[in-house]
Amino acid sequence: MIKTAFDSPAIVLLIGLCMLFGLNQTVVKFGLEGISPLMQAGLRSVGASLLLMLWMTLRGEKIFRDDGAFWWGVLLGALFAIEFLLIYIALTLTTASHTTIFLYTSPFIVALGTHLFVPDESLKRSQVVGLLIAFAGVFFAFRDSVDGEASLLGDSLALAAAFFWGATTVVLKASPQRHQSPSRVLLYQLVVSALALPLLSWLMNEPGITQLSSWVVGSLLFQTVLMAFAGYLAWFWLLSHYPAAKIASFTFLTPLFGVLFAWMILDEQLTYDMLGALLLVALGIYLVNKPGRRV
What is the pLDDT of residues 22-39, one digit of tens each? Predict the structure, then answer.
């Protein structure tokens, strides 16, 4: 049953998830000191897949069954794998704060995609304004890449990752996968990426695991247990119990937390261009998810 309003535990959980998602890019940076990008992303998916299968088994949910949406699930998994391939490579080239800002342009990809491919989800006036504001934010972020410590290539890869993240959401909304349980939707994405990313790491001659310090191991555990398994499951649980639009309106907090953690932990520079980009993207996310009149 969908509740019409948030209660206090849901608000606390939602803000906590926004903090968790914002922290993730910073944590990945620590893992990259000892595990190459694609191998790290692959190991994360392998571990989270095993945890999710255990969770489904304990809940009595079948892992292997004919759900009638297998190839759609494979497509979702492929998009998910490409998204994280791009994110992890981007983090070797640019800052965690820039990666977060560009990655969280994804809601605008979703808004455009659902407008085009999902019936009854046309753009609202507030969403059009939000898209334009976010575009201005991306301009400031790219200008900061030219003058700051980030790189245009890394930022471009993070923006491409946002496109694939948005495409994953649009495919989910427009395909039979939308009728699957949250666990099964997540399982497809984790399993396909768990198979694809280590193979790609090997094909690209990555060094793989080079150093397993406590920081590297802690980073991988954070990504596997808290982010890919518990974080995603909690997010899907919220989506199944509360209105999606109200949940989405909180996502503007994630890039704010992401830049804050990168500044506090990694001592990344905060320029006026980046702060302007952050505020514009956050405002755009809020407007895209704000109820309004359709155009």
Answer: 999 999 999 999 999 999
Write the DSSP string, the chain. ---SS--HHHHHHHHHHHHHHHHHHHHHHHHTTTB-HHHHHHHHHHHHHHHHHHHHHHTT--SS---S-HHHHHHHHHHHHHHHHHHHHHHHHS-HHHHHHHHTTHHHHHHHHHHHHSTT-PPBHHHHHHHHHHHHHHHHHHHHHHHSSS-HHHHHHHHHHHHHHHHHHHHHHHSGGGGS-HHHHHHHHHHHHHHHHHHHHHHTT---B----HHHHHHHHIIIIIIIIIIHHHHHHHHHHS-HHHHHGGGGHHHHHHHHHHHHHH-----HHHHHHHHHHHHHHHHHTS---B-
Among residues 28, 33, 24, 25, the alpha carbon closest in space to that of 212 is found at: 33
- The pLDDT assigned to 182 comes to 81
- Count other C-beta atoms under 10 Å from residue 212's C-beta: 11
Q: 212-216 — which CB contacts under 8 Å span 24+ positions?
A: 212/34, 213/33, 213/34, 215/30, 215/33, 215/34, 216/30, 216/31, 216/33, 216/34, 216/35
Residue the block writes with tokens 């937390």: 257
Q: Are 52 and 190 in contact (CB under 8 A)?
A: yes
What whole-number distance in Å separates Cα of residue 274 and Cα of residue 195? 36
**Domain ranges in the chain?**
8-288
First vs last C-alpha separation in the chain: 30
Question: pLDDT under 70 in the chain at which residues?
Answer: 1-6, 118-123, 145-150, 240, 243-246, 248-249, 289-295
Tell me the C-alpha distance between 22 and 96, whole Å.
10
Is 133:292 a contact under the CB 8 Å cutoff? no
CA separation for the pair 36, 209 (Å, rounded): 7
